[in-house]
Amino acid sequence: MEVIVVEPERFGDAALEAVFxxxxxxxxxxxxxxxGKTPVPLYAAxxxxxxxxxxARVRPFAIDEYGGRRDHPCANRAYFALxxxxxxxxxxxxxxxxxxxxxxxxxxxxxTALEAAGGLDLVVLGIGTNxxxxxxxPGSGPGTSARAVxxxxxxxAAARGCWGLETPDTGLTLGLAELLGARRAVLLATGPAKxxxxxxxxxxxxxxxxxxxxxxxxxxxxxxxxxxxxxxLRRGGGATxxx
Length: 243
Ligand code: PGA
Prior knowledge:
The protein has 243 residues and is α/β, with parallel strands linked by helices. It has helices spanning 11-23, 40-48, 52-57, 76-83, 103-116, 153-163, 176-180, 195-203, and strands at residues 2-6, 30-33, 59-62, 64-66, 122-125, 147-150, 170-173, 184-189, 221-226, 240-242. Helix 1 (11-23) packs across helix 2 (40-48). The chain is globular and about 50 Å long.
């Protein structure tokens, strides 16, 4: 696992460099895209850098979605329209439809489409303050596949800032099997509020209590942190580290 720590103002560019590097040798990479606050600077850097050549090669997949209304402005669908769809040349994101009549069928549909595309070449991930990856909440094992889930209080608390009283208590997510099956992974985290969970995920024991900890066993993960999120790493702190 490679851990890159940068000053906050460098985060978007550092994340973009990690993503470019992870896909440099793949003609048409299948990429799982994170949502949330953390990757906003990544998408902004991509827009600013005339990254169209890379973007046009990417086959993008959502990694999760809220179980709220499909057309809600806080749905990941709206996020992608804003942050990914605004990048010139970006293909439409393959994503979950939370309005589907049967969410289990819907999750299987997306997992099957992903499998037909050859699986993920790269997954870009954020981390929840509870250690979740996409909506694989604590308790999720490495063999879990795409499915509808109940959100934890921590995930709902994070969602409330946007969703308010309409905060969904369910989600649709790729499983850890699909995410950890990605050939390469880039994990992103920013800010001191993520410092404790980042340290636990990267340096604590691997297990379902912290789904992000399974990345320790992934063969090709790059972690990009700002100095705030890296503050509690025993071996971190302002440098690049390779294990
Ligand atoms: P955030 O979400 O980027 O908004 O902190 C990360 C996550 O929950 O995976």
